[in-house]
Amino acid sequence: MSETGIFEIIAEWKIRRLKQLKSLDDIDLVKRWILYSLGLEETAQEIYLYLEKMGSSTSTEIAKALNISPNTARKYLDDLHTVGLTDYIGREYHLTYDSLSKAIELILIPRLTDTLKTIARIARETIDRRKIGIETLLADERYGRKEVLKFFSSMRITRKMVEIWYRFGKKVVIKSFGKLSFEKDIDPQMAEEVIDSIESYGPVYISPQLYSILSYKFKSIGSLELIE
Questions:
Q1: Side-chain half-sphere of 138: how many Cα atoms within 13 Å?
Q2: Which residues are 205's β-sheet partners?
Q3: What 8-state DSSP symbol labels residue 67?
Q4: What is the pLDDT of residues 10-61, one digit of tens each?
Q5: Over the stretch 190-215, which tens digit does the pLDDT of each residue have?
Q6: Where does residue 123 fall: left (phi above 0), alpha (psi -120 to 50 degrees), or beta otherwise?
Q7: Phi/psi class of residue 35: alpha, beta or left (left: φ > 0; alpha: ψ in -120 to 50)?
Q8: CB 147 within 8 A of CB 169
Q9: pLDDT tens-place string over residues 72-98
């Protein structure tokens, strides 16, 4: 499925890994190497160098000086602004810093870092939580001490899950609407400590030893099978 019309792009970066220049004596060439590494094409490079020379300028003045349309000038000024190299006051554009390295370190890197952290957070809080299940959710202390966990399909409570709950001092309420099973090697005392209650509306498979400890915590409508 095409992303066109589904995702709204707010900012876009293109970072290139270039072969290092053999000589760093030509300062203008080094500047162009840096700008091209940041995904900026030749026209954007020309605008940067023009602003560096003039101090500040409007998009109309830039367009006239470089023999391009005002819309083209604004497009490349937006590219320069996205990577943190230019800013504007009213209609006039200027460089954010006289130093390229400062602009990269103080504006571009934090922007990229924040964007990547946002992407990672969304991945962690949605995809990873569903894929890994409870383990990711319960190992995260930000969610507080008590968890209400609902499962609408088959769920297997493992020894590792219980150990994670215990380690982080969790109290867990389990609500299962599908098949619910417990691994045989779960420590009954540890499970009693961390599991607050269990509501089951589907079949439950549990060892006699574990059930004898947790039976008073159960509210079960589905069938119960004790497995050795």
A1: 26
A2: 181, 225
A3: T
A4: 888 999 999 999 999 999 999 999 999 999 999 999 999 999 999 999 999 9
A5: 999 999 999 888 889 999 999 999 99
A6: alpha
A7: alpha
A8: no
A9: 999 999 999 999 999 999 999 999 999
Q: Residue for token digits 């922007």?
A: 111
- Tell me how far apart the alpha carbons of residues 203 and 179 are, in angstroms, rounded to a whole number: 5
* Total residue length of the chain: 228
Torsions phi, psi of 94, nearest 5? -150, 165
Q: Which two tokens stand for residue 148?
A: 């209400």
Residue type, 40: L
Under 8 Å between Cβ of 184 and 205 = no
Cβ atoms of residues 149 and 172 within 8 Å = yes
DSSP label at residue 11:
-
Tokens of 221: 């409508």
